[in-house]
Amino acid sequence: MVKAATAARRRRLTAAAFLAPFLVLFVVAMVAPVGYTIWMSLFREQSNGGLGFGGAERVFVGLDNYVRAVSDRGFRSGFANLAIYCVIYIPLMLGGALALALLLDTALVRARRFFQLALFLPHAVPGLIAAIIWLYLYTPGLSPIVDLLADGGLAWNFFDPDTVVISVVNMAAWQWTGYNVIIFYAALQAVPREVLEASAIDGAGSVTTALRVKVPMIRSAVVLTTLFTVVGSIQLFTEPRVVQLKAQGMDSAWSPVLYIYRAAFTEHDYGLAAAASLLLAGLAGGLSYAVTKFGNRTRKGALA
Amino acid sequence: MKHRTLRSAAAVAGAVTSLALLAAGCGSSGSDGSGGADSGGVTEITYWSWLTGAQELTDAFNKSQSKIKVRFEKIPSGTNGGYDKVVNAVKAGNAPDVVNLEYNALPEFASQGLIQDIGDKAGSTVTSNFPAQIQNLVTLGGKTWALPRDAAPQVFYYRKDLFAKHNLKAPKTWDDFKAAAEKVKKADKASRIAAFWADEPGLLAALAWQAGAKWYATEGDAWKVSYTDPASKKVAGYWNDLVKQDLVWNQVSYSPEWTKGMVDGKTLAVIGASWSGGALKATVPAQSGKWAAAPMPTWDGTPASGMLGGSAYALPKGGKKAEAALRFTTFATTTADSFKAQLSSGASSALPAKQDLVAAAKQFFDTEFYGGQDIYTLSSAQIATIKPGWVWGPLQISANGTLKDAMGTQDYPAALDTTQQKAVEAIKGRGLKLAG
What we know:
The structure holds two protein chains of two kinds.
Chain A: H1 2-40, E1 43-47, E2 56-60, H2 64-71, H3 73-105, H4 112-124, H5 127-138, H6 144-151, H7 164-189, H8 193-201, H9 206-217, H10 219-234, H11 238-243, H12 256-266, H13 270-303
Helix pairs in contact in A: 1-13, 2-13, 3-7, 3-10, 3-12, 4-7, 8-9, 10-13, 12-13
Chain B: H1 2-35, E1 43-49, H2 54-64, E2 68-74, H3 82-92, E3 98-102, H4 106-111, H5 119-129, H6 132-138, E4 139-140, E5 143-144, E6 147-148, E7 150-151, E8 154-159, H7 160-165, H8 174-187, E9 195-196, H9 201-210, E10 216-219, E11 222-225, H10 230-244, E12 249-250, H11 256-263, E13 269-273, H12 276-283, E14 291-295, E15 311-314, H13 322-334, H14 336-343, E16 351-352, H15 358-364, H16 375-383, H17 396-409, H18 412-429
Helix pairs in contact in B: 2-14, 5-13, 9-10, 13-14, 15-16, 17-18
């Protein structure tokens, strides 16, 4: 009896010891900051004295910061920009990555290792560095590309506020396509060879095999990358932040994260920034749920 | 059973505590830079700045006495992240003892409770050393918030050789300027007289100030906001036309295109201020001897000026060594040795806010770049022409952000309407009083 109790206790201790690092990090890095953000979102800083030179204090404003964020046209137009960005970026980048992975997976490609490395290399360049290099490639007078396009009769202003989203998509796609190619390619390696042989014997060409056999078999990888891409896109910050340095018509709150950044670091309105962050986090959570739910349902449908 | 749960809870708690201790350890080692223990009667203080010559100033002060040791740290320039850094440091409780702030940022820092009122200890230093126009900018709501470093009246810089080539003289009025702009473009399609920086609201502010605008004023204990007064609209409309008609470059301030235009000799003039004299030298050193300075063109031909930039020394909240910090800032603002050190780098032409230092400062600035022209006497003569009564707003940094955004997408006069509306909203939201 005593022995059994001791064993059980030891097991619990072991479990606690293994769980503790995760729990501690989770609390310190996740629960505590989120809790603090919720707390901050309920306050607003105000200055004393009619002119404001009598010191500052934080006052409780309830949900006012949320109301302010939602009713701010700047915040909403950030979401509009983000939506346009996602509609262009997600299909283009994931579609491109899938196509490249399927090409790599066929016997057609020589020097497969070289292409794998070449495709992945852009992802190894830190995002900020890549963004700055692109900024130079976009700048007329400095960029060989802009001049080349102009000589070819395709004059294009990468900083035009109406089409700047394309410049942003390009930067992001350049960085992330290769990364997703590697994930898709790894998933394709796991497709059983006998299935592919069977489809070949049944007379399927390589295009049919790719679209009808391979793609359905790596569906879970596609759902996973879509999830990562959606969540990553919502946090769009680096690329527009850098393009902004040059594109004069681009709003300082071009994306929701830029709006939060401006509220916190330019306007020092931490309450508004906290409220907007939580709204954005809510949206990211909702969309992730939708993507996984949708992915699971289509999978079940396919199996039935 | 209960006993065991407690035990495992204790295990978790133990792990939390040790991690917290670890975190605390990191925290304290990170902040000791500003804590700085006194050792052997020497007080250590920290000074943050991005200004040219700040390191030289620190060295000169440290050499001049042995009681106080200043540690200088370079930060990004104000709106490029420097102010964010200062604000966050104050909020986190590890602010430096001294920072440089531009005059237009002072009211915002003061009203957000980020800097100390130094009236008790330095109020008389301000009133006895600096001209009234500059005192106004550091004395807000009856309190003194900073010691002024430099005066920044507007100054017009131009390429003597290229002006001569196009048979032009330094424009006296803005009409002259426009005529000259047309002439330059006509003579050489790839050249423009100057660049307008729509991304730098301080430039439009200085130009409006010169025309007699007052974006902010105080009436009793209430703010008055008027971005849309006739003078501001006139100035905004004028530059909007020049940009629309492609008579000036529409470039981002200090961008590679702007620099390229300067280096290639395709930009003939700079709408600058006293301090640009040194900056210009650093930008296009190869054009030494080809530049000259002149008073800014005006609307009616009578000399007038606004201020473009200019900065002061403030003491962030939370600093416990105000006395030492004030000794340092007093040295920095009121002694010839300070300006000797700051100007020794050659890339600064800061015009001392304290007028009787101008004569000394002048000797430390090498005028070869301007063909020997005495630009110090010229720019200090402009101080008297600065239009009185200009006040920066209590949320000026945010308002500048709004104006910058609006100027990117709207005509400049319409951008002023947008800014007016948002600035008023922001002031109300901050709990301040509005007049009228």
